[in-house]
Amino acid sequence: MTDGPDLSVRMGALVLKNPILVASGTFGYGSEYGRFLDLSRLGGIVTKTLTPTPWPGNPPPRAAETASGMLNSIGLQNVGVEAFITEKMPYLRTLDTARIVNIGGGPLEEFVEVMEKLVGCEGIDAFEINMSCPNVAGGMDFSTDPPRAAELIGALRKITPLPLIAKLTPNVTDIAGIAAAVEEAGADAVCAINTLRGMAIDIETRRPRLGAIMGGLSGPAIKPVALAAVYRIARRVRIPVIGVGGIMSAEDALEFLMAGASAVQVGTANFVDPRTGATVADDLRDWLVKKGIQTVHDVIGSLSTT
Ligand SMILES: Cc1cc2nc3c(=O)[nH]c(=O)nc-3n(C[C@H](O)[C@H](O)[C@H](O)COP(=O)(O)O)c2cc1C
Questions:
Q1: Measured between alpha carbons, how far is 176 from 160 in angstroms, rounded to an integer?
Q2: Residue 69 belongs to a domain with what CATH number?
């Protein structure tokens, strides 16, 4: 590490060398990307949502491009928690970057089952709880209702002392209210946002462009929505906020930091260039140097509204 501004951020017990993470579902289990970039340039990797058993996901087609965003209906395809522990964690343990393991499920018992299997698995730095997948039945139930959100986080809080990050859906009226509920239930951080429900139609065939008919919209199209969500949440809760949605550049990341995010995640941009997260981290450092700013903390929440 060369001299320069301090990019490190802390979220409870989770310390990140820089505030740039890669988002769940857009970076596999890390190993798929090791040949494209030096993964130690990232603040951390959030792995694909894990469910109790391997899951094939939704019927194809599962991705469609729209004007400024991507629609997907992958539906939590994953190797299952047991294969993750034996086949994916050994590689992740070798990396000099934070490992944030994202878990999900249908009913609460499935989240608990996955978490119980991961407790004691060496090398995990934090858990991100996907309470917000629009592509599985019941996937958003936990982040659309404050008492249910609190119930889920409260149950998981009892199982692990590691940092818990609650990942919220934007498909609600009051996202800050959900954030307040998970804070109260013991979450260490909140991540916003997951994808926005959307659809697209092929007018020649008059068929939906996704096999699951509807999916989740991501990419630059959702950045203003994500930014407003982060701003609202950061004003409501004391725990750190992680911003995600349409980040393609350091300038985008800076907007989120100024709005109050302590860290950000790069998602869809990884499909354009898998090195985006590392480039954003480097460019963020350069921006701080150019401005003569010693620490990224001077940027976090620095938005001026008067
Ligand atoms: C193809 C794809 C798969 C995704 N899978 C997951 C997932 O398994 N778990 C999760 O919490 N979020 C998942 N997401 C949501 C992203 O992590 C992120 O919250 C969202 O895409 C917004 O960020 P972006 O605009 O930078 O992509 C997925 C997104 C995409 C595009």
A1: 25
A2: 3.20.20.70
